[in-house]
Amino acid sequence: MLILNKTAGVFSKPSRRKPYEFLRSFNFYPGKLFLHKLVLGIETSCDDTAAAVVDETGNVLGEAIHSQTEVHLKTGGIVPPVAQQLHRENIQRIVQEALSASKVSPSELSAIATTVKPGLALSLGVGLSFSLQLVHQLKKPFIPIHHMEAHALTIRLLNKVEFPFLVLLISGGHCLLALVRGVSDFLLLGKSLDIAPGDMLDKHVIDKIIMQKEKEEGIQKGQILSSAAHIAAAVQHTIACHIAKRTHRAILFCKQRHLLSQSNAVLVVSGGVASNLYIRKALEIVTNATQCTLLCPPPRLCTDNGIMIAWNGIERLRAGVGVLHNTEGIRYEPKCPLGVDISEEVGEAAIKVPRLKMEI
């Protein structure tokens, strides 16, 4: 079992605190020999502190996660400084739990992979700072991970999906369509112009509709609108149909440009909102009409987790892409596009999307 040093102020700015040793001691597991590459993945891009150890065959050897949901529900949304503090308080324990569960000693790791972009700046900073000190202590390669790339590649942990494939990433903070041509080779076909689906399901325009209806019905605090279920259903249906139409266009564009196979193309849907079965059913209508296969990771791997980060690290390690042996100058990036943006080209193609009957 790995025992990590507990020192107050560990995550304070390096200029104010002296570096400390993360690893005081750890135990080996006699008779246990790992023949595959092993990567520790660390995720702190938003409000979940997660870590996992995955090998190159896709076996998840150990994982741990701490959710901040209950805390942020009280404030009606994520407060970055609060998220940062909770990451600081839990990251050491979560990494230790993942390593202990995996029965892998730190010295046996092939590399450490950590989300460095995009995400909340304060949250990303905690994960990066912890990881870099761990990397320096263990003298292991570091693999910086793009959060959306990790979501896109998660499916290859579970299914034998060859490149290229189309991916739709939908979450509370992101919504994009991209063609995945390789481990770090993406063509961005389109993204949300203002807010992501998860954000739309939570607030903004919907709030105004609800407030107006409450006024009309004279709703008092604690009462529920008579039309609440209808509003929720209408919003969900509108979002599902919009996403389906845009995805349909992306499939047609890729097939016209011979970027995807005409008969056995794959559409991967990932991200937190991909757990929404109504949206999945809308996308099934599209894939059935276009002779595509729809694949989605299980719900627990659609939301943020350490497994997808570790797996992305394995993918990059095997491909020899983005594996750093010198971390000087590495920084986190709160905003960072995914791949090469060809969305203008998609728009200029002016593809007419056939009308589909969306009976969901």
Word description of this protein:
The chain is an alpha/beta fold and 360 residues long. The protein is built from 12 helices and 13 strands. The chain has a 6-stranded mixed β-sheet with strand order 12-11-8-9-10-13, with helices on both faces. The N terminus is likely disordered. InterPro entries: ATPase_NBD, Gcp-like_dom, KAE1/TsaD, TsaD. One of its GO terms (cellular component) is mitochondrion.
Q: Please give the largest β-sheet.
A: 6 strands, mixed
Secondary-structure-based class equals: alpha/beta
Low-confidence stretches: 1-20
Q: β content, as a range?
A: 15-25%
CATH class of the largest domain: Alpha Beta
Strand element count: 13
Organism: Zalophus californianus
Cofactor: a divalent metal cation
Keywords: Acyltransferase, Metal-binding, Mitochondrion, Transferase, Transit peptide, tRNA processing
EC number: 2.3.1.234
Question: What keywords describe this structure?
Answer:
360 residues, alpha/beta, Nucleotidyltransferase, domain 5, six-stranded mixed beta sheet, five-stranded mixed beta sheet, 12 helices, 39% helix, 21% strand, disordered N terminus
In short:
InterPro entries: ATPase_NBD (IPR043129), Gcp-like_dom (IPR000905), KAE1/TsaD (IPR017861), TsaD (IPR022450). This protein has 360 residues and is of the alpha/beta class.
